[in-house]
Amino acid sequence: MNDQELDILYTQQLNEELVLQTRRKINQFIETHPQSFGLDALFTASNPGNMPEELAKLYQEVCAYYNNNVLQFDHVWSWSFIWRQQLAYKNLAENYGLEQIVNATHVRAKKAVKQIYVEGLDQYMQWFPWTWFSSMQFIGAGGFSAVYAALMSPPYDVEPVKVSLKVVDDKILNEISVQSKAFLPLLFQGLTVCESTGDLMMVMKMSNDGNLEDHMQQLPLGDLDLKTITGTILRLSVNLADLHKAGLCHRNVHPRNIMCTDSDYFLVDYRFSTPSKESSSVTALTKAVYGRLPYIAPEIKRGVYTEKSDIYSLGIIIWQLVSKVIFPSPDVLLDAHSTHGGFAENAYRIEPVPGLPDWYQKLYVSCLEPKPENRPTAAELCELLQIIHGNLELSVPLAREVTEYIVARRAEVADHLRTYSKIKGIVSASTTRLYTLTNVPSTEHYVMLPFSNNPFNVSEWQQYQIVQQQHQNALLQQTQSTITPSDIFASLEAAHLLV
Questions:
Q1: Cβ of 313: how many Cβ atoms within 10 Å?
Q2: How many other CB atoms sit within 10 Å of the CB of residue 482?
Q3: 45 DSSP 8-state letter
Q4: Contact of 287 with 302, CB cutoff 8 Å
Q5: Protein kinase domain: from which residue to which, for each copy (predicted)?
Q6: What is the CA radius of gyration of the chain?
Q7: Of 88, 113, 357, 451, which sits with the fewest C-beta atoms within 10 Å of its C-beta?
């Protein structure tokens, strides 16, 4: 071992020792000031002193550790990250005992905390005291639960963190279970209990860009590029493939349940997820479906729900990513007394989008095949999309026909919405609802696509799309759209759609 290797080894060991020292100091601080961290049921504070002053002093000590040893101090990794680790349920249980941690937990959260340990999420999750939250604003409802935006101000960080708080009931256990089996919980960070209402709440990372529907609805449109769009579809397919590999069905896939965070996409809301083998029996037994139109697959009306039903929902989204159609309230479909016939057909119509490469058309058509057995699996979509995405040029703008179609469909929908609202009042966006199997509206006749009625074959698909893609790349280079997002914005504004 040469001198350079010895220096590297020494630096690593020294850095590990400084991290251990910081951990010990943080633990001592928590034990001295348990109330500030929501752990006063675990420790009895003795001579706590002035917490902010002592915390500032500890921060200076840690900085001095690094400076005195000629090591770079990084605020995030050398301070904030270690705090979060020490407050995670895993480290708390290792330091003070699992039973003691559960017993010291707020009575409303005990059951959920036990499940966090059972599912192995304790290294990611922590308890957040209610005093850390401020500026809470209602932002909507996810499933049957209210969702709030808030600022979280941990005492060890100067800048507050934007988070969302979701009121939950016992179904949180199902959501915790699904996340542990299928995804690294990047969004779900822990639990808190509202002091005024006693509601148990999930603490989640606030999405930087809202949900996928927000993203598709924004003007001027920001993703008129096939490379970007196929990357989005690939990420969503990976999410579903992970879930299905764990033997689970999501049962409520739609754009508002897809959060956009740091240019990545995550499926959320697993409250109604069920094991794949039980999904059909649960649907048949309850004779009900909790979902959103038109994302509900046609076979569900017959009491059949499989992983291919999730694929159908994804197929609608794949079509939406290029059509930019945002579906209005299902009241439009349910209103049997509409006197302005044709609205539902115009608002919910799913048809071939002109100007797209054949392989893209074939992609969403295959996901929307009427018979579930003819649709691809999520794993097959991943395999195929990795090839497609990799073979695409760095930028493949959508053709003029596509952007013209977007403008036309939005004008069409907006016009009918204005007519409908004059008769029935304001029409909200499409929402998730509970339907019985007998009253869930059929949307099959709105899907006007050239189905093959043949099973999906990934090998044949790969050969087909490689040839087609090479041809389309060359064609798109020659006929690159001259319509820009700003042009679309101007067209929509002229058509009075920005209302």
A1: 24
A2: 9
A3: -
A4: no
A5: 133-392
A6: 26
A7: 451
What interhelical angle do 307-323 and 226-245 show, nearest 10? 170
Distance in angstroms (rounded) separating the CA atoms of residues 276 and 255: 22
| CB atoms inside a 10 Å sphere around CB 438 | 8
Give the pLDDT confidence of 405-425 residue by residue, as tens digits.
998 888 887 877 777 666 555
pLDDT of residue 141: 60
Q: Which residue has the tokens 């919910």?
A: 348
pLDDT value at position 77? 84
Q: Give CA–CA dist 402/356, Å, rounded.
A: 7
Q: Is 499 a residue whose pLDDT tops 50?
A: no
Task: Name the more confident of 2 and 96.
Answer: 96
Is 296 within 8 Å of 333 (Cβ atoms)? Answer: no
Distance between CA atoms of residues 435 and 154, nearest Å: 42
Cross-strand pairs, 188: 204
Q: Nearest-CA neighbor of 338 among 433, 257, 417, 402?
A: 417
pLDDT-derived band at 224, boundaries 50, 70, 90: confident
For the domain made up of 212-494, the CATH class stated in words is mainly alpha
Residue positions counted in the chain: 499
Contact indicator for 35, 45 with CB cutoff of 8 Å: yes
For residue 36, which of 125, 132, 104 has the smallest C-alpha distance?
A: 132
Helix (H, G, I), strand (E, B) or coil at 325: coil
In single-letter form, the type of residue at position 332 comes to V
If you average pLDDT over every residue of the chain, what do you get?
80
pLDDT digits (tens, 9 = 90+) for 137-189: 877 665 456 778 889 999 998 888 888 888 876 665 666 666 655 554 556 78
pLDDT at 430: 58
Question: What residues contact 480, with CB distance under 8 A and at least 6 apart?
Answer: 397, 399
List Cβ neighbours of 148 (8 Å cut-off, separation of 6 or more).
Answer: 136, 137, 138, 139, 164, 165, 166, 167
Higher pLDDT, 431 or 131: 131
Q: How far apart are CA 374 and CA 498, in angstroms?
A: 40
Calculate the CA 112 to chain-centre distance. Answer: 21
Report the alpha-carbon distance of residue 331 to residue 344 in Å, rounded: 10
Reading the block at residue 439, the tokens are 């009253």
| Lowest-pLDDT range of 66-80, 240-254, 310-324, 456-470 | 456-470
